[in-house]
Inverse folding.
């Protein structure tokens, strides 16, 4: 069983390339949506099968109505860390 959605929050000790490979592995195994949140660069990388990776620059919120109806993640506290 594979979840529909995964989220990764980059810590100071994480290497971005390794997390990007991990996110791609999730997609390869059936995940429908992945968010890689990078507080160091204030970016959110959005992964979905069959689509190019979308990168959002310092969004205040992130959501996906198709896979996560009625869910909105407030990123302001993460950016303030």
């Amino acid at each position: 069983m594979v979840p529909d959605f995964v989220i990764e929050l980059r810590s100071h000790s994480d290497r971005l390339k390794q997390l990007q490979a991990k996110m791609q592995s999730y997609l390869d195994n059936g995940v429908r949506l992945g968010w890689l949140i990078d507080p160091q660069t204030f970016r959110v990388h959005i992964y979905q099968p069959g689509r190019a990776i979308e990168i959002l620059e310092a969004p205040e919120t992130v959501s996906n109505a198709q896979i996560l109806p009625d869910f909105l993640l407030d990123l302001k506290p993460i950016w303030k860390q």
Summary: The longest strand covers residues 33-38. The chain has one domain: 5-79.
